[in-house]
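Dear support,

I submitted the protein below through the web form. The confirmation email said the job was done, but the results page showed an empty box. After a refresh the structure appeared. I'm attaching both so you can tell me whether what I see now is the final result or a partial one.
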Amino acid sequence: MSQLLPFLTEDPLPPSRNRRSPVRWTVAALGILALVVAGVWAFTTVQTLAPEERAAAVAGTPVLVVVNTGDSLATVARSLEAAGVVATASGFLASAELDDRATRIGPGVYSLTTGMDPASVIDAMLDPASRAAPLVLPEGLRIDETVRFTAAATGIPESQLADALGEPDALALPEWADGRPEGLLFPASYDIIPGRSASEVLNTMVRRFDLAAAELNLVKRAKKLGMTPYDVMIVASLVQAEAAPSDFRKVARVAYNRLKEGMKLQFDSTVNYALKTDTFFLTEQMLSVESPYNTFVIDGLPPTPINSPGQEAIEAALNPAEGDWLYFVTTDPDSLTTKFTASYEQFLEWKQKFREGYGASNAPRPSASATP
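What the results page shows now:
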């Protein structure tokens, strides 16, 4: 206690020996700076964690929301929030937790409106009427037909699509295609996503082909046949054009048998491709057209596929039926009934019956594929 008595006085305290110490000033300044930095960090963190303020969208405004393949419900929720369809992603997810149907929301382009109740969003996204009409490419379209279909569905000018076909790198074509897109714009249903370029749209078709090619093991199985993948695609396109699916494998076998025998293929579909026609009745003049696609004139396969074959036709080209057939005749074009034979005489008989029973009133020459 005695040591404290000198300080218990009304006199002013003695001056600090460290009042003017530079070290103490530096420490004090750093402390103040640390407090400022901590304050700024806390303010920024709070602002980040708080809901982002955004201009309130006018309720009922039409918007498109894209759901990509593989998107989770959380991703869908964020897309809906960003488009202003729902107020918060968490609100949509809460409704989805209570509605098992939400797991059935699939990829596509959805036409919705801003300011919707989360529960009604689920109803709308499961209603086919809310989905934008897709681009549907059927099997067997020629490349110019694919361009027309795509232009009509997407609004992208045909000229832009045609220019994009000349950019193999942008389309990401397989190396073995050697820059040729024919046959590789896969027939399927595609969602139309606004704002995509011609190259992006066509690239989507090529990537869909890549999936089919991988599933079929195209490259390895083509090698087993002693063919390139592109040659298999050419055969698949002929198969697609010439017969009904039930006869695909037989047509493939005819093609391979004729190639093995050194015979011209003589498929009517290749003449139609060369002339940009689509008829079962070809005249002698049509059959003599000079074109690298006219298999009545050239040896071997045409230079590219003549259409985009579907997966079933590609499988047939990879796995032809067993048989010695060299000829086939489509005896009924309406039902695509086709007969196969190894006999030239039998082929001539069927061709004559076709002429008398179906083709006599339509054209001087009936369709008779693989004629010698």
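Response: this is the final, complete result; the empty box was a page-load delay. The domain at 62-130 is CATH 3.30.1490.480 (Dna Ligase; domain 1).
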